[in-house]
UniProtKB/TrEMBL annotation:
This is CoA transferase. It comes from Massilia hydrophila. Gene3D superfamilies: Crotonobetainyl-coa:carnitine coa-transferase, domain 1 (3.40.50.10540), formyl-coa transferase, domain 3 (3.30.1540.10). GO terms for molecular function: transferase activity. Signal peptide: none annotated. It holds the Pfam family CoA_transf_3.
Length: 415
């Protein structure tokens, strides 16, 4: 485990400021990426409650005595490196504050329903009039136009509507068959990643031309794009791909197997690796068997071969199989639970888990940004902020408001 990069280290986006109006996951994930790359991200939250995910616990971060703080682990996962400012966007004074803040920002992120922010004069057209070169990124379920534009979009729904669940899960003809969602909110996360790319591209365009623009990101668009080869397979064949569980449609064996004490993944990419696999298992005759000698034959005779291989694998323990197959060059690996992931020697060597100082928990442990750049580190020195932690700081620093003026705004419930 490592400490985060020191504040003095140069950052790729140290010249960029982001006004983040987004909540929950897709928008905050994008904003966290930008913060990790050095942007000054100002997270605007509702006074008193803040981002919805602040209440999405347990689990919560724990303090030095092992007691729960009020910081939900879900919220912590997507909000490091930001400054939290509370503003009531429904009040005219709150809107005026945000209009002033926008003048000092390069990017606005939001994930409200289509048209919702127009009533508060926080839509793209309203803010473009204040700052013409603004990069404004909207993240919604279905985009800014089309017959579904005004529908609310949620990751689970989009995984179903966008085809991911149709190719995820066990085969219908096997026990437990049927569609499954992914174990993490992949559509939200990938939309946040695509939004990050779009914001960086728009900033590059702005820097060349002085022109800002509106970015329209939709969860459904992202999910369809994420189908990748599966989508291409359908478009070029007219046949919707089916679910294969932990098996592969075109390669055998390329799947999970139960060992004597756990599970492993075996991924034989060619006939030579297959023969090494069955030889290691004491069944060399399966390598020359005319039914299984080539991959096309193994695919054709999958239902005959896989039960034989499953019986073979069950004879040894997981770690014994991994050591044996690695020694002969057969791609394999364990199926780790999350605890085993963070205990893994490679994960520890790469210092994936980082500790950041925190005002109530003392410290929090988070997952570092996976971007590794030799000159410009992509990781934060700041823990996810407490609700409104930086309100006074930002309003004084950027708008010149003194303590008395900020106190008046607090008394009115504006901040």
């Amino acid at each position: 485990m490592t400490q985060a990069t020191t504040p003095s280290a140069p950052k790729a986006l140290g010249h960029i400021r982001v006004l983040d109006l987004s909540r929950v996951l897709a928008g905050p994930w994008c904003a966290q990426n930008l913060a990790d790359l050095g942007a000054d991200v100002i997270k605007i939250e509702r006074p008193g409650s803040g981002d919805d995910t602040r209440a999405w616990g347990p689990p919560y971060a724990r303090d030095a005595e092992g007691q729960d703080t009020g910081e939900a682990a879900y919220y912590l996962a997507a909000n490091r490196g930001k400054r939290s400012v509370t503003v009531d966007i429904a009040s005219s004074e709150g809107q005026a504050l945000l209009h002033e803040l926008v003048k000092h920002c390069d990017v606005v992120l939001e994930n409200f329903k289509v048209g919702h922010l127009k009533r508060y004069r926080l839509d793209y057209d309203s803010l473009k009039a204040i700052k013409p070169d603004l990069v404004y990124c909207s993240i919604t379920g279905f985009g800014q136009d089309g017959p579904y534009a005004h529908r609310a979009g949620y990751d689970f729904l989009i995984q179903g509507m966008g085809g991911l669940m149709s190719v995820t899960g066990e085969r219908d003809d096997l026990p437990g068959g049927g569609p499954q969602k992914a174990g993490v909110a992949l559509t939200d996360l990938m939309t946040g990643m695509y939004a990050t790319v779009a914001v960086l591209a728009a900033l590059t365009h702005r820097d060349r031309t002085g022109q800002g623009q509106h970015i329209d990101m939709a969860l459904l668009d992202t999910q369809v794009a994420m189908l990748a080869n599966m989508g291409s397979n359908y478009l070029n064949s007219g046949k919707p791909p089916r679910r294969w569980g932990n098996a592969h449609a075109n390669i055998v064996p390329y799947q999970t197997f139960a060992c004597a004490d756990g599970h492993i993944i075996v991924a034989t990419g060619n006939d030579g690796q297959y023969r090494k696999f069955v030889e290691a298992g004491g069944r060399p005759e399966l390598g020359s068997d005319p039914r299984f000698a080539t991959n096309p034959l193994r695919v054709q005779n999958r239902d005959l071969l896989v039960p034989i291989l499953a019986e073979m694998v069950r004879e040894k323990k997981r770690d014994a199989w991994i050591a044996l197959l690695e020694s002969v060059g057969v791609p394999c690996g364990p199926i780790n639970d999350i605890g085993e992931v963070f205990a893994n020697e490679q994960v520890r060597a790469r210092e994936v888990a980082i500790e950041l100082p925190h005002p109530t928990a003392g410290k929090v442990t988070l997952v570092r940004n996976p971007i590794r750049m030799s000159a410009l580190p992509a990781t934060s020195d700041k823990a996810p902020p407490l609700l409104g932690q930086h309100t006074a700081q930002v309003l004084h620093e950027m708008l010149g408001l003194d303590e008395a003026a900020i106190a008046v705004l607090r008394d009115k419930g504006v901040v």
